[in-house]
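S., here's the first fold you wanted:
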Amino acid sequence: METIRLEFQPEIKAKILELLSSFSSDELTIVQERSIFEEEKRMLQSRIDKIDNGTAVYSTFEELDILLEKTISKYED
Protein backbone atom coordinates (compact mmCIF):
# COMPACT_ATOMS: atom_id res chain seq x y z
CA MET A 1 0.00 0.00 0.00
CA GLU A 2 0.98 3.61 -0.44
CA THR A 3 0.36 6.46 1.98
CA ILE A 4 -0.52 10.07 1.22
CA ARG A 5 -1.31 12.98 3.53
CA LEU A 6 -4.26 15.23 2.71
CA GLU A 7 -4.88 18.73 3.99
CA PHE A 8 -8.35 20.13 3.42
CA GLN A 9 -10.81 22.70 4.67
CA PRO A 10 -13.06 21.34 7.46
CA GLU A 11 -16.23 21.98 5.48
CA ILE A 12 -15.36 19.33 2.87
CA LYS A 13 -14.48 16.56 5.34
CA ALA A 14 -17.89 14.87 4.98
CA LYS A 15 -17.54 14.77 1.18
CA ILE A 16 -14.06 13.30 1.39
CA LEU A 17 -15.13 10.63 3.88
CA GLU A 18 -18.15 9.79 1.71
CA LEU A 19 -15.89 9.26 -1.29
CA LEU A 20 -13.38 7.20 0.71
CA SER A 21 -16.11 5.02 2.18
CA SER A 22 -16.87 3.72 -1.32
CA PHE A 23 -13.62 1.71 -1.19
CA SER A 24 -13.26 -1.63 0.60
CA SER A 25 -10.98 -2.04 3.60
CA ASP A 26 -8.69 -4.12 1.36
CA GLU A 27 -8.32 -1.15 -0.97
CA LEU A 28 -8.12 1.70 1.52
CA THR A 29 -7.32 2.18 5.19
CA ILE A 30 -7.58 5.56 6.91
CA VAL A 31 -4.55 6.08 9.15
CA GLN A 32 -4.94 8.64 11.90
CA GLU A 33 -2.34 11.39 11.99
CA ARG A 34 0.03 11.23 14.93
CA SER A 35 -1.05 13.74 17.54
CA ILE A 36 2.41 15.28 17.78
CA PHE A 37 2.86 15.77 14.03
CA GLU A 38 2.12 19.51 14.05
CA GLU A 39 4.38 20.04 17.07
CA GLU A 40 7.24 18.21 15.36
CA LYS A 41 6.60 20.14 12.14
CA ARG A 42 6.87 23.48 14.00
CA MET A 43 10.04 22.40 15.80
CA LEU A 44 11.71 21.30 12.57
CA GLN A 45 10.66 24.48 10.77
CA SER A 46 12.15 26.52 13.62
CA ARG A 47 15.46 24.67 13.23
CA ILE A 48 15.42 25.21 9.46
CA ASP A 49 14.75 28.92 10.00
CA LYS A 50 17.74 29.19 12.37
CA ILE A 51 19.98 27.49 9.82
CA ASP A 52 18.68 29.74 7.03
CA ASN A 53 19.07 33.00 8.98
CA GLY A 54 22.48 32.09 10.42
CA THR A 55 21.49 31.90 14.10
CA ALA A 56 21.91 28.13 14.47
CA VAL A 57 24.50 27.03 17.03
CA TYR A 58 26.75 24.20 15.93
CA SER A 59 29.00 21.86 17.90
CA THR A 60 32.26 20.28 16.85
CA PHE A 61 32.66 16.51 16.88
CA GLU A 62 34.93 16.89 19.90
CA GLU A 63 32.27 18.86 21.81
CA LEU A 64 29.65 16.29 20.90
CA ASP A 65 31.92 13.46 22.01
CA ILE A 66 32.47 15.11 25.40
CA LEU A 67 28.72 15.63 25.84
CA LEU A 68 27.97 12.03 24.90
CA GLU A 69 30.64 10.68 27.25
CA LYS A 70 29.21 12.72 30.14
CA THR A 71 25.68 11.54 29.34
CA ILE A 72 26.73 7.89 29.06
CA SER A 73 28.72 7.97 32.30
CA LYS A 74 25.77 9.57 34.08
CA TYR A 75 23.54 6.58 33.27
CA GLU A 76 26.16 3.79 33.42
CA ASP A 77 25.81 3.13 37.14
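And the second, which I think is the more interesting of the pair:
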Amino acid sequence: MTQLAAGLTVRTARLDDAAEIARIAGFVAGQSGGTPFHLPAWGAATARATGQHFAMLVAERGDAVAAILPLTTLRSRLFGTALVSTGFGVAGGPLGDDQVAQAALIEQALAIAEAEDAPTIELRGGPAPVGAGWTVDEGRYLGFVRPIAADDAAELAAIPRKQRAEVRKALAAGFEIATGRSRRDLAEHFAVYGESVRNLGTPVFPPALFREVLDAFGPEGADILTVRHGGRPVASVLSLYWRGTVYPYWGGGTRAARALRANDAMYFALMRHARDRGCTAFDFGRSKAGTGPAAFKKNWGFPPRPLAYATWTRDGAAPRDASPLNPKYRLKIAAWQRLPLAVANRVGPWIARGLG
Protein backbone atom coordinates (compact mmCIF):
# COMPACT_ATOMS: atom_id res chain seq x y z
CA MET A 1 0.00 0.00 0.00
CA THR A 2 1.23 3.50 -0.86
CA GLN A 3 0.10 6.35 1.40
CA LEU A 4 -0.25 9.65 -0.44
CA ALA A 5 -1.29 13.18 0.50
CA ALA A 6 -4.84 14.21 1.35
CA GLY A 7 -5.75 10.83 2.81
CA LEU A 8 -5.31 9.01 -0.52
CA THR A 9 -3.91 5.48 -0.63
CA VAL A 10 -3.09 3.25 -3.59
CA ARG A 11 -2.87 -0.52 -3.28
CA THR A 12 -3.33 -3.75 -5.17
CA ALA A 13 -6.73 -5.38 -4.66
CA ARG A 14 -6.99 -8.75 -2.95
CA LEU A 15 -8.52 -10.83 -5.73
CA ASP A 16 -8.85 -13.88 -3.48
CA ASP A 17 -11.26 -11.98 -1.22
CA ALA A 18 -14.92 -12.27 -2.29
CA ALA A 19 -15.92 -9.18 -0.32
CA GLU A 20 -13.17 -7.15 -2.00
CA ILE A 21 -14.25 -8.31 -5.44
CA ALA A 22 -17.89 -7.45 -4.70
CA ARG A 23 -16.89 -4.02 -3.43
CA ILE A 24 -14.94 -3.21 -6.58
CA ALA A 25 -17.69 -4.61 -8.83
CA GLY A 26 -20.18 -2.36 -7.05
CA PHE A 27 -17.93 0.64 -7.65
CA VAL A 28 -17.65 -0.20 -11.36
CA ALA A 29 -21.43 -0.61 -11.66
CA GLY A 30 -21.94 2.84 -10.14
CA GLN A 31 -19.66 4.64 -12.61
CA SER A 32 -21.09 6.03 -15.84
CA GLY A 33 -17.98 4.90 -17.72
CA GLY A 34 -17.91 1.44 -16.21
CA THR A 35 -17.80 -1.58 -18.55
CA PRO A 36 -17.62 -5.35 -18.08
CA PHE A 37 -13.91 -5.07 -18.88
CA HIS A 38 -13.34 -3.07 -15.70
CA LEU A 39 -14.70 -5.89 -13.53
CA PRO A 40 -12.34 -8.12 -11.54
CA ALA A 41 -14.21 -11.08 -13.03
CA TRP A 42 -13.01 -10.17 -16.52
CA GLY A 43 -9.37 -9.72 -15.63
CA ALA A 44 -9.18 -12.81 -13.46
CA ALA A 45 -10.93 -15.04 -16.01
CA THR A 46 -8.78 -13.94 -18.93
CA ALA A 47 -5.61 -14.37 -16.85
CA ARG A 48 -6.56 -17.90 -15.79
CA ALA A 49 -7.21 -18.85 -19.41
CA THR A 50 -4.06 -17.38 -20.93
CA GLY A 51 -1.43 -17.60 -18.20
CA GLN A 52 -0.96 -13.83 -18.17
CA HIS A 53 -0.88 -11.84 -14.92
CA PHE A 54 -3.77 -9.63 -13.78
CA ALA A 55 -3.87 -7.08 -10.98
CA MET A 56 -6.40 -4.46 -9.93
CA LEU A 57 -5.03 -1.17 -8.62
CA VAL A 58 -7.34 0.62 -6.20
CA ALA A 59 -7.13 4.22 -4.99
CA GLU A 60 -9.05 4.93 -1.77
CA ARG A 61 -9.92 7.86 0.42
CA GLY A 62 -10.59 6.41 3.81
CA ASP A 63 -13.01 3.53 3.34
CA ALA A 64 -14.28 4.74 -0.05
CA VAL A 65 -12.99 3.65 -3.44
CA ALA A 66 -11.94 6.73 -5.40
CA ALA A 67 -10.68 5.13 -8.64
CA ILE A 68 -9.53 1.81 -10.07
CA LEU A 69 -7.15 0.67 -12.79
CA PRO A 70 -7.23 -2.97 -13.95
CA LEU A 71 -3.89 -4.09 -15.41
CA THR A 72 -2.96 -7.19 -17.36
CA THR A 73 0.73 -7.89 -17.88
CA LEU A 74 1.04 -9.39 -21.34
CA ARG A 75 4.24 -11.27 -22.10
CA SER A 76 4.86 -12.58 -25.59
CA ARG A 77 7.99 -13.78 -27.33
CA LEU A 78 6.60 -12.36 -30.56
CA PHE A 79 5.12 -9.06 -29.38
CA GLY A 80 7.09 -8.21 -26.24
CA THR A 81 5.79 -7.15 -22.84
CA ALA A 82 3.11 -4.57 -22.10
CA LEU A 83 0.79 -3.52 -19.29
CA VAL A 84 -2.71 -3.33 -20.74
CA SER A 85 -5.88 -1.93 -19.20
CA THR A 86 -7.55 -4.27 -19.77
CA GLY A 87 -6.08 -7.32 -21.46
CA PHE A 88 -8.34 -9.06 -23.99
CA GLY A 89 -10.88 -6.24 -23.60
CA VAL A 90 -11.79 -3.21 -25.70
CA ALA A 91 -12.16 -0.92 -22.68
CA GLY A 92 -10.95 -0.82 -19.09
CA GLY A 93 -8.89 2.35 -18.65
CA PRO A 94 -8.74 4.38 -15.41
CA LEU A 95 -12.19 4.63 -13.83
CA GLY A 96 -13.47 7.12 -11.28
CA ASP A 97 -14.37 10.79 -10.95
CA ASP A 98 -11.43 11.64 -8.69
CA GLN A 99 -8.73 13.03 -11.00
CA VAL A 100 -6.07 13.06 -8.30
CA ALA A 101 -6.76 9.40 -7.56
CA GLN A 102 -6.58 8.53 -11.25
CA ALA A 103 -3.25 10.29 -11.58
CA ALA A 104 -1.94 8.33 -8.61
CA LEU A 105 -2.97 5.07 -10.26
CA ILE A 106 -1.15 6.03 -13.45
CA GLU A 107 2.01 6.77 -11.45
CA GLN A 108 1.73 3.36 -9.82
CA ALA A 109 1.29 1.74 -13.24
CA LEU A 110 4.46 3.47 -14.46
CA ALA A 111 6.32 2.11 -11.44
CA ILE A 112 5.07 -1.40 -12.18
CA ALA A 113 6.12 -1.07 -15.81
CA GLU A 114 9.64 -0.18 -14.71
CA ALA A 115 9.76 -3.03 -12.20
CA GLU A 116 8.51 -5.60 -14.72
CA ASP A 117 10.63 -4.25 -17.58
CA ALA A 118 7.54 -3.51 -19.65
CA PRO A 119 8.33 -0.83 -22.25
CA THR A 120 4.66 -0.13 -23.02
CA ILE A 121 1.43 0.70 -21.18
CA GLU A 122 -1.87 0.66 -23.09
CA LEU A 123 -4.95 2.34 -21.59
CA ARG A 124 -8.11 1.40 -23.46
CA GLY A 125 -10.34 4.34 -22.66
CA GLY A 126 -10.64 6.70 -19.72
CA PRO A 127 -8.95 10.08 -19.29
CA ALA A 128 -5.70 10.37 -21.20
CA PRO A 129 -2.65 10.93 -18.98
CA VAL A 130 -0.48 13.97 -19.59
CA GLY A 131 3.28 13.67 -19.44
CA ALA A 132 6.42 12.40 -21.09
CA GLY A 133 6.07 9.24 -23.11
CA TRP A 134 2.28 9.36 -23.50
CA THR A 135 0.47 9.56 -26.85
CA VAL A 136 -3.25 9.34 -27.60
CA ASP A 137 -4.72 7.59 -30.66
CA GLU A 138 -8.26 8.70 -31.48
CA GLY A 139 -8.40 7.60 -35.09
CA ARG A 140 -7.64 3.89 -35.26
CA TYR A 141 -10.66 2.40 -33.48
CA LEU A 142 -14.37 3.15 -33.66
CA GLY A 143 -17.10 2.08 -31.22
CA PHE A 144 -20.68 1.28 -32.22
CA VAL A 145 -23.62 1.47 -29.79
CA ARG A 146 -27.34 2.10 -30.26
CA PRO A 147 -30.61 1.33 -28.46
CA ILE A 148 -32.44 -1.95 -28.98
CA ALA A 149 -35.87 -1.34 -30.48
CA ALA A 150 -39.09 -2.29 -28.74
CA ASP A 151 -39.92 -5.22 -31.05
CA ASP A 152 -38.80 -6.99 -34.22
CA ALA A 153 -40.73 -4.68 -36.53
CA ALA A 154 -39.20 -1.60 -34.97
CA GLU A 155 -35.77 -3.25 -35.07
CA LEU A 156 -36.08 -3.87 -38.79
CA ALA A 157 -37.21 -0.29 -39.33
CA ALA A 158 -34.10 0.94 -37.50
CA ILE A 159 -31.83 -0.80 -40.01
CA PRO A 160 -31.03 1.23 -43.16
CA ARG A 161 -32.97 0.10 -46.23
CA LYS A 162 -30.25 -1.79 -48.13
CA GLN A 163 -29.12 -3.77 -45.10
CA ARG A 164 -32.73 -4.30 -44.03
CA ALA A 165 -33.36 -6.19 -47.28
CA GLU A 166 -30.44 -8.50 -46.49
CA VAL A 167 -31.74 -9.12 -42.98
CA ARG A 168 -35.21 -9.96 -44.30
CA LYS A 169 -33.68 -12.56 -46.61
CA ALA A 170 -31.72 -14.00 -43.69
CA LEU A 171 -34.84 -14.23 -41.54
CA ALA A 172 -36.61 -16.15 -44.29
CA ALA A 173 -33.81 -18.71 -44.60
CA GLY A 174 -35.09 -21.00 -41.86
CA PHE A 175 -31.97 -21.13 -39.73
CA GLU A 176 -31.95 -22.92 -36.39
CA ILE A 177 -31.03 -20.48 -33.60
CA ALA A 178 -29.63 -21.95 -30.38
CA THR A 179 -28.55 -20.19 -27.20
CA GLY A 180 -26.80 -21.77 -24.26
CA ARG A 181 -23.65 -22.36 -22.23
CA SER A 182 -23.13 -26.11 -22.60
CA ARG A 183 -20.07 -28.00 -23.83
CA ARG A 184 -21.75 -28.29 -27.21
CA ASP A 185 -22.30 -24.54 -27.34
CA LEU A 186 -18.64 -23.92 -26.49
CA ALA A 187 -17.40 -26.49 -29.01
CA GLU A 188 -19.53 -25.11 -31.82
CA HIS A 189 -18.53 -21.56 -30.99
CA PHE A 190 -14.81 -22.40 -31.01
CA ALA A 191 -15.12 -24.27 -34.31
CA VAL A 192 -16.90 -21.35 -36.00
CA TYR A 193 -14.82 -18.60 -34.42
CA GLY A 194 -11.58 -20.44 -35.14
CA GLU A 195 -12.43 -20.74 -38.82
CA SER A 196 -13.56 -17.11 -38.94
CA VAL A 197 -10.32 -15.66 -37.58
CA ARG A 198 -8.17 -18.12 -39.59
CA ASN A 199 -9.85 -16.78 -42.73
CA LEU A 200 -8.95 -13.27 -41.60
CA GLY A 201 -5.36 -14.32 -41.06
CA THR A 202 -5.21 -14.03 -37.27
CA PRO A 203 -4.69 -16.72 -34.59
CA VAL A 204 -7.59 -17.93 -32.47
CA PHE A 205 -7.66 -17.46 -28.70
CA PRO A 206 -7.37 -20.50 -26.41
CA PRO A 207 -10.65 -22.40 -25.92
CA ALA A 208 -10.17 -21.91 -22.17
CA LEU A 209 -10.66 -18.16 -22.62
CA PHE A 210 -14.26 -18.60 -23.72
CA ARG A 211 -14.99 -21.18 -21.03
CA GLU A 212 -13.46 -19.09 -18.24
CA VAL A 213 -15.38 -15.95 -19.24
CA LEU A 214 -18.66 -17.87 -19.40
CA ASP A 215 -18.02 -19.31 -15.95
CA ALA A 216 -16.93 -15.98 -14.45
CA PHE A 217 -19.97 -14.05 -15.64
CA GLY A 218 -22.49 -16.81 -14.97
CA PRO A 219 -25.85 -17.46 -16.67
CA GLU A 220 -27.04 -13.90 -16.08
CA GLY A 221 -23.93 -12.34 -17.56
CA ALA A 222 -22.84 -14.37 -20.58
CA ASP A 223 -24.00 -16.94 -23.13
CA ILE A 224 -23.46 -18.19 -26.67
CA LEU A 225 -25.85 -17.80 -29.60
CA THR A 226 -25.26 -20.09 -32.58
CA VAL A 227 -26.86 -20.19 -36.02
CA ARG A 228 -27.13 -23.64 -37.57
CA HIS A 229 -27.84 -24.47 -41.20
CA GLY A 230 -28.72 -28.06 -42.04
CA GLY A 231 -27.74 -29.01 -38.51
CA ARG A 232 -24.23 -27.51 -38.83
CA PRO A 233 -23.09 -24.35 -37.03
CA VAL A 234 -22.27 -21.56 -39.47
CA ALA A 235 -22.19 -18.49 -37.22
CA SER A 236 -21.74 -18.06 -33.48
CA VAL A 237 -21.18 -15.29 -30.94
CA LEU A 238 -20.30 -15.20 -27.25
CA SER A 239 -21.98 -12.19 -25.63
CA LEU A 240 -21.81 -10.39 -22.29
CA TYR A 241 -24.85 -8.81 -20.59
CA TRP A 242 -24.24 -6.01 -18.15
CA ARG A 243 -26.25 -3.02 -16.91
CA GLY A 244 -28.91 -3.43 -19.61
CA THR A 245 -26.46 -3.65 -22.51
CA VAL A 246 -25.56 -6.68 -24.60
CA TYR A 247 -21.96 -6.91 -25.77
CA PRO A 248 -21.58 -9.37 -28.69
CA TYR A 249 -17.90 -9.92 -28.18
CA TRP A 250 -16.34 -12.96 -29.82
CA GLY A 251 -18.33 -13.71 -32.95
CA GLY A 252 -17.82 -14.92 -36.48
CA GLY A 253 -18.96 -17.16 -39.27
CA THR A 254 -17.67 -19.97 -41.45
CA ARG A 255 -16.73 -19.40 -45.07
CA ALA A 256 -20.28 -20.36 -46.02
CA ALA A 257 -21.86 -17.86 -43.64
CA ARG A 258 -21.60 -14.83 -45.92
CA ALA A 259 -23.49 -16.35 -48.83
CA LEU A 260 -26.06 -17.75 -46.41
CA ARG A 261 -26.41 -14.35 -44.64
CA ALA A 262 -25.91 -16.25 -41.40
CA ASN A 263 -24.23 -13.31 -39.65
CA ASP A 264 -27.25 -11.12 -40.41
CA ALA A 265 -29.51 -13.76 -38.91
CA MET A 266 -27.22 -14.08 -35.90
CA TYR A 267 -27.11 -10.41 -34.92
CA PHE A 268 -30.83 -9.89 -35.45
CA ALA A 269 -31.55 -12.98 -33.33
CA LEU A 270 -29.18 -11.62 -30.67
CA MET A 271 -31.07 -8.32 -30.58
CA ARG A 272 -34.28 -10.26 -29.99
CA HIS A 273 -32.65 -12.49 -27.38
CA ALA A 274 -31.12 -9.52 -25.55
CA ARG A 275 -34.47 -7.70 -25.57
CA ASP A 276 -36.09 -10.76 -24.00
CA ARG A 277 -33.38 -10.64 -21.32
CA GLY A 278 -34.28 -7.04 -20.53
CA CYS A 279 -31.48 -5.28 -22.40
CA THR A 280 -32.11 -1.86 -23.90
CA ALA A 281 -28.79 -1.21 -25.69
CA PHE A 282 -26.61 -3.10 -28.16
CA ASP A 283 -22.87 -2.47 -28.04
CA PHE A 284 -21.47 -3.75 -31.33
CA GLY A 285 -17.92 -3.42 -30.03
CA ARG A 286 -14.96 -1.77 -31.68
CA SER A 287 -13.65 -2.03 -35.22
CA LYS A 288 -10.70 -0.46 -36.94
CA ALA A 289 -11.59 2.57 -39.04
CA GLY A 290 -11.76 1.90 -42.75
CA THR A 291 -12.27 -1.86 -42.43
CA GLY A 292 -15.04 -4.17 -43.55
CA PRO A 293 -16.33 -4.83 -40.01
CA ALA A 294 -16.68 -1.07 -39.41
CA ALA A 295 -18.64 -0.70 -42.65
CA PHE A 296 -20.85 -3.67 -41.71
CA LYS A 297 -21.81 -2.04 -38.41
CA LYS A 298 -22.51 1.32 -40.01
CA ASN A 299 -24.73 -0.45 -42.54
CA TRP A 300 -26.78 -1.74 -39.60
CA GLY A 301 -27.46 1.82 -38.47
CA PHE A 302 -24.85 2.04 -35.74
CA PRO A 303 -23.21 5.48 -35.60
CA PRO A 304 -19.40 5.27 -35.35
CA ARG A 305 -17.75 6.91 -32.34
CA PRO A 306 -13.98 7.37 -32.14
CA LEU A 307 -12.33 5.58 -29.23
CA ALA A 308 -9.36 7.20 -27.52
CA TYR A 309 -6.55 4.90 -26.41
CA ALA A 310 -3.52 6.26 -24.57
CA THR A 311 -0.12 4.58 -24.84
CA TRP A 312 3.05 5.14 -22.88
CA THR A 313 6.36 4.04 -24.37
CA ARG A 314 9.64 4.10 -22.49
CA ASP A 315 12.31 6.35 -23.96
CA GLY A 316 14.18 4.56 -26.69
CA ALA A 317 11.74 1.64 -26.85
CA ALA A 318 9.86 0.67 -29.99
CA PRO A 319 6.06 1.04 -29.61
CA ARG A 320 4.23 -2.29 -29.33
CA ASP A 321 1.98 -2.78 -32.36
CA ALA A 322 0.30 -6.16 -32.66
CA SER A 323 -2.40 -4.83 -35.01
CA PRO A 324 -3.02 -6.99 -38.11
CA LEU A 325 -3.14 -3.71 -40.08
CA ASN A 326 0.57 -3.27 -39.45
CA PRO A 327 2.22 -3.69 -42.89
CA LYS A 328 5.02 -5.82 -41.46
CA TYR A 329 2.51 -8.60 -40.74
CA ARG A 330 1.05 -8.67 -44.28
CA LEU A 331 2.96 -11.74 -45.46
CA LYS A 332 2.43 -13.57 -42.17
CA ILE A 333 -1.32 -12.95 -42.38
CA ALA A 334 -1.43 -14.24 -45.95
CA ALA A 335 0.44 -17.37 -44.90
CA TRP A 336 -1.84 -17.93 -41.89
CA GLN A 337 -4.92 -17.77 -44.11
CA ARG A 338 -3.58 -20.74 -46.07
CA LEU A 339 -3.02 -22.94 -43.02
CA PRO A 340 -5.23 -26.02 -42.59
CA LEU A 341 -7.85 -25.17 -39.97
CA ALA A 342 -6.74 -27.98 -37.63
CA VAL A 343 -3.20 -26.61 -37.63
CA ALA A 344 -4.33 -23.00 -37.13
CA ASN A 345 -6.54 -23.98 -34.19
CA ARG A 346 -3.71 -25.93 -32.57
CA VAL A 347 -0.96 -23.35 -32.99
CA GLY A 348 -3.08 -20.19 -32.80
CA PRO A 349 -3.86 -20.23 -29.06
CA TRP A 350 -0.14 -20.25 -28.20
CA ILE A 351 0.32 -17.04 -30.19
CA ALA A 352 -2.97 -15.35 -29.35
CA ARG A 353 -2.51 -15.63 -25.57
CA GLY A 354 0.15 -12.90 -25.93
CA LEU A 355 -1.92 -10.57 -28.13
CA GLY A 356 -4.39 -9.37 -25.52
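Why I say that: The longest helix spans residues 183-200. The two ends are 28 Å apart (CA to CA).

Talk tomorrow,
H.
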